[in-house]
Amino acid sequence: MLNPDSVGRTFAGTDVITISQSEVDAFCAVINETDKTIAPPTFTIRITLTQFEAILTQPEIGLDWARLVHGDQKFEIFSPVKAGDALTCAATIESYRVAAGNEIVSVRSDLHRGSELVISSWATLVVRA
Amino acid sequence: MGNSSGARMIEVGTELPEKVFFLDRALLKQYADASGDQNPIHQNEEFALSVGLPNVIAHGMLTMALVGKYVSDFAGGSSNVLEFGARFTKPVVVPAGEKVDLTVSATVSEVVDGKVSLTLSATSAGVKVLGMAKAVLKK
């Protein structure tokens, strides 16, 4: 079970993540995107899901990642991501509830390039009973 | 999307042409590597069955990435996509040796302040796989 005290807390990612051209190329190849100068709209899930996993499975938070299902996902893109961008990720646990034994967690991720907010994204993650 | 003569009319209710993508196990592996999501439910049939799934299922985010390609193409490039969201309502089931469809279409739901909103539809084998799917584009 998720520790309810963690709701409303923001966790700063520790590392600066530099996007490589090969990462963008690999993502573009899956969807046959020929313009590799810009990362596709959902590319940054590659960063944010990893960050969510690292944060939410910390012992004091306690989410069981193995039983996790992705409920929904939304992106707001203020500035498209490109290879060479150095991004930091901050994740906020926005809400948490239990329904029929399922744990439902809403998390927001804010990706910054320096001080500029480039992408906010929201995910609802469901831990099945 | 331009405004030159010959550009298509974009107004509320405009229906975009349908596009069909195909998913197979190789694409799921390729997406697992590209996204970093190596959850075995997307690659290992025995594991998927053991956790109560009907078969290997596609990553919801792979479905969304393909719909995102549809959106980017209409928008004239990924840089014109401002918002994109969806709910994962049903999994896309991908049996071994098969290619399954992901059929995508959209309707213009709003045109305001230089932005175009799309309501998106995504089905596989006739089953709706995304709900509340919406994108907002720079006009």
Automatic annotation (TrEMBL), chain A:
**Record-annotated FAS1-like dehydratase domain positions:** 36-105
SUPFAM superfamilies according to UniProt: Thioesterase/thiol ester dehydrase-isomerase
Please give one Pfam family short name.
FAS1_DH_region
Q: Which InterPro entries match?
A: FAS1-like_DH_region (IPR039569), HotDog_dom_sf (IPR029069)
Write the protein's name: Unannotated protein
Automatic annotation (TrEMBL), chain B:
- Coiled-coil regions listed: none
Q: What protein name does the entry list?
A: Unannotated protein
Q: Give any Pfam family that matches.
A: MaoC_dehydratas
Q: Which GO terms describe its molecular function?
A: fatty acid synthase activity
Q: Which GO terms describe its biological process?
A: fatty acid biosynthetic process
Enumerate the spans annotated as MaoC-like domain: 25-113
One GO location term (cellular component): fatty acid synthase complex
